[in-house]
Amino acid sequence: MSDRTAAKSLSQNQDTPRGLIFAVLAYATWSFLPIYTKAIDYIPATELVAHRVIWSLPIAWVTLAVLGLTGDIRLALRSPRILLMACVTATLISINWGLFLWAVMVDRATEAALGYYINPLMNIALAAVVLRERLNPMQIVAVSLAVLAVTIIAWDEGGLPWLSIALPMSFASYAFLRRTLPIGPAQGFFLEILLLTPPALAYLFWLQWQGVGHFTFDHPKDVWLLIAAGPLTAAPLLLFVFAARMIRYSTIGMLQYITPTSILLLAVFMFGEPFSMVRGIAFGLIWVGLVVYMVPPSLFGRMRGHKDGQTG
């Protein structure tokens, strides 16, 4: 076995210290993004999304240049199929960004946290509906608990918690389609940002023309906060991309709950959002569903085999 093959095998079957550090840093950055968002909640979410795009572009390009992957972008730009797919994924991720930022700005971060807890279960449901994948009994129970939690909140609030559904739906759809994009993760991120840049620039120029834009040197604090949107967007995503190659998929599955847990704690204890008993029950059902979801199918098979052996 060559050194390269051995290293690849190690990264697939074991968690490397560097990979764990990258993953924790990525999720920690995402976790505290609501604090940054609250600091500029007087700026519309759409304007902030546009600045996230603009200031992420140079970071993404430098990353590709350092890795020597810029040639992949030139090839992708010559492929109408890749460009069309990237346009769709770019639209989905920008919608997800906008919804999350808006949720924090209008004191609905708790609903955003619920949405991101539902996200892995939404992935299962999407695979079952679109790919016709058969769900194992544990997955059926997990998805059913998520549906029950949403139903309880809908009953209590007199309507569907659309934000808690739209967030995981947009991100799950993005992740599903992103997997089919025939280009690497870092290249794909740059391509999506590149495609979003023209409309983002046009929108920002229009805001400045109308005199309602916040990127003005009369308010230097706003300028620096908006520029910071770039690294706060690109850095954790790129850290996650590299971490995903150095740690096991199961480890990523566990670490992903750092973000919604932190968002929930911030929403309740720092932002003072209400957390009723009904919401507590709904979150409890989601947490139970996630525990059930993480039960390995092989364990269920062994349990069933043991039971059959006892009754046979």
Helix content: over 70%
Q: Please, how many domains?
A: 1
Q: What pattern of helices and strands is seen along the backbone? A: HHHHHHHHHHHHHHH
Tell me the distance between the termini.
Answer: 46 Å
| Beta-strand share of residues | under 5%
The major β-sheet equals: none
Mean pLDDT: 84
Query: Please, how many helices?
Result: 15
Dominant shape: globular
Which residues form runs of ≥5 with pLDDT under 50?
Answer: 1-12
For the secondary structure, the number of strands is 0
Rg, rounded, reads: 21 Å
Indicate the structural class: mainly alpha
Provide a descriptive summary of the structure in words.
- The protein has one domain.
- It has helices at 3-13, 17-31, 33-39, 45-67, 70-77, 80-105, 109-130, 137-157, 162-178, 185-210, 220-243, 249-255, 258-270, 277-293, 297-311.
- α2 (17-31) packs antiparallel against α11 and α4 (45-67) packs antiparallel against α10.
- It is mostly helical.
- The termini are far apart.
- The longest helix is centred in the N-terminal third of the chain and has 26 residues, at 80-105.
- Helix content is 81%, strand content 0%.
- The model is unreliable at 1-12 (pLDDT under 50).
